[in-house]
TrEMBL record:
<dbReference type="GO" id="GO:0006508">
    <property type="term" value="P:proteolysis"/>
</dbReference>
<keyword id="KW-0812">Transmembrane</keyword>
<keyword id="KW-0472">Membrane</keyword>
<dbReference type="GO" id="GO:0008233">
    <property type="term" value="F:peptidase activity"/>
</dbReference>
<keyword id="KW-1133">Transmembrane helix</keyword>
<dbReference type="InterPro" id="IPR052348">
    <property type="entry name" value="Metallopeptidase_M50B"/>
</dbReference>
<feature type="transmembrane region" description="Helical">
    <location>
        <begin position="45"/>
        <end position="66"/>
    </location>
</feature>
<feature type="transmembrane region" description="Helical">
    <location>
        <begin position="191"/>
        <end position="208"/>
    </location>
</feature>
<feature type="transmembrane region" description="Helical">
    <location>
        <begin position="86"/>
        <end position="111"/>
    </location>
</feature>
<feature type="transmembrane region" description="Helical">
    <location>
        <begin position="123"/>
        <end position="144"/>
    </location>
</feature>
<feature type="transmembrane region" description="Helical">
    <location>
        <begin position="150"/>
        <end position="171"/>
    </location>
</feature>
<protein>
    <submittedName>
        <fullName>Zn-dependent protease</fullName>
    </submittedName>
</protein>
<keyword id="KW-0645">Protease</keyword>
<feature type="transmembrane region" description="Helical">
    <location>
        <begin position="14"/>
        <end position="33"/>
    </location>
</feature>
<keyword id="KW-0378">Hydrolase</keyword>
Length: 209
């Protein structure tokens, strides 16, 4: 299987990754950001925002990146021509929403073309949320390990990674619009139910952590 990336695709992935890092930093560290913009920041505001940006890149950024790469890999596996395209207007809205204290992310999508069956289309769609579920398990291990070792930074990375990837998996399995859940449901309602119940339920549960 030959996975290739065009210069434009690499640029779009990088821009989307950074933009989501900024958006999630603005959302999760909104108090520090407002203090900075209000002209009355404490001495530790810039370090806090810097750490927040790194945390966001390592959690939301990686969750997004691997989600999209999973779509691409499976699409190529089925003989598709597949490439990620960033949606710059949606990325701008994501950043503005983060500054306003809201969480919103629709950074773009992997577009693919070629002859394909409904099953293959469904499996391509399912690959993204499946990767986020796997990342929930990985970050849960980091969270537990960080807490057990008394390493607060690892615990925070793990905690944020669990929350963000659970939300990404659950949100994308909703059967609406261009989301992955609608494509999975179009292929197989039983597969969608088996996938959506734990992912959407998990997202709702983790949202309140």
């Amino acid at each position: 299987m030959d996975i290739r990336f065009s210069d434009r695709e690499i640029r779009d992935l990088a821009v989307a990754w950074v933009a989501l890092g900024v958006a999630f930093t603005a959302f999760y560290f909104n108090g520090a950001l407002r203090s900075l913009l209000g002209g009355t920041p404490s001495a530790d505001v810039l370090p806090v925002l810097g750490i927040g940006f790194v945390l966001s890149m390592l959690t939301a950024g990686i969750g997004f990146l691997l989600h999209e790469l999973a779509h691409k890999v499976v699409a190529v596996r089925y003989g598709q021509l597949a490439e990620f395209r960033a949606d710059y207007s949606m990325l701008f809205l994501a950043v503005m929403a983060g500054f306003a204290g809201f969480l919103f992310a629709a950074p773009g999508a992997v577009y693919h073309r070629g002859r394909i069956t409904a099953r293959e289309q469904g499996l391509i769609a399912l690959a993204g949320p499946a990767v986020n579920v796997a990342l929930v398990a990985v970050f849960a291990g980091v969270w537990i390990g960080g807490e057990a070792a008394g390493v607060g930074l690892l615990g925070t990375i793990g905690y944020l990674g669990v929350i963000i990837n659970a939300l990404l998996a659950g949100f994308n399995m909703l059967p609406f619009g261009p989301l992955d859940g609608k494509k999975v449901m179009r292929w197989s309602r039983p597969v969608w139910i088996a996938s959506a119940v734990p992912t959407i339920g998990g997202a709702i549960a983790f949202f309140f952590l």
